[in-house]
Predict the structure.
Amino acid sequence: MTHDHDGPHEHDLGLSHDLPALLNRRRALGLLTGAGLAAALAACSGSDSSGGTPATSSTPSTSGSPSTTNATVDGEVPEETGGPFPADGSNGANVLTESGVVRSDIRSSFGGTSTTAEGVRTTIDLTIFDMNGSEVTPYEGAAVYIWHCDREGRYSMYESEIADENYLRGVQAADADGRLTFTTIFPGAYQGRWPHIHFEVYRTAADAQKATGKLRTSQIALPEDTCKRVYATSGYEQSVQNFARTPLDSDMVFSDGYSLQMANATGTPDDGMTLKLNVAV
C-alpha cells in the first residue's frame, strides 16, 4: 500500500473520521446528544491535556505479593483508534498469526527477512493492571501487541517500500508483576500526528496470536522534551519539521486528554531511551 507522507494518515483525518473511536473514551460517554456532543467538542481544548499529570501515570504501590497488591492508578487507559496500519487482521495484513511474533526485541523483521529498523535504541517498559472497581492488581499473563512507525514515519507491512518487512511489531506477555518490556527504536514524527506508539492488550499471548479476547486498543504519547532531543540526532531530520506542525493539544487522539497515556521517559539518545507507562484495563 503506497502512502504519501506529505498528507495526514487515514487516522489523522479529523474528528469526523474517528468519532466512533473517540466516543469510546470514558469522558465522552453520555454525550451523544446534540447539546452533549457540542459540549464535548468544546471541552477538548480544555481537558487535562494541559493540566493534571501529563508526564506519567500514577506509580503503583508495591506492598504485598504481586497477585494481591492494590495499586494506585488514576483509571483505565482510554480506548483509541488503532489507525489504518494495525496488521492484526482487521485491515488486511496480519502479523499476529506469524511464527516469531512473540518477542521482546522488535527492531528487526522476522520470517523471510531480517532487516533492522534504524534509530535511537528505546526500551518500552509497561506494567499492566487489572482494574476491577476499587481493586487494582497486576495482570499476570496479559499480552500486549505493540507497533509503531519507523524513523522515517513509515509502517511496516503496508507502505510500498517496506511492505515485505514486519519490523517494529511484536507481542509480549506480562510476568507475575504485570510487567513486560520491548526493545525497539524511537519512532519518527510524521505529518498530522503527535509522536505515538500503538498497542493492544489481550487476555493471553495465545489470544493475541489469534486476535481474540482483546481488552483494549490505545496509544502511548511521547514527551515533548524527549522528542526534541531524539529528533536532534542524525537520521531524524524530517521529524523535526513534522513535529513542529502538530502540537500535542491539537492532536486528534490526545487533544481531549493524555494523562493516562503519556510515557515517563529517561535516558539519552546516545545511551538509549526508556519509556515507562502503567496501563490499567
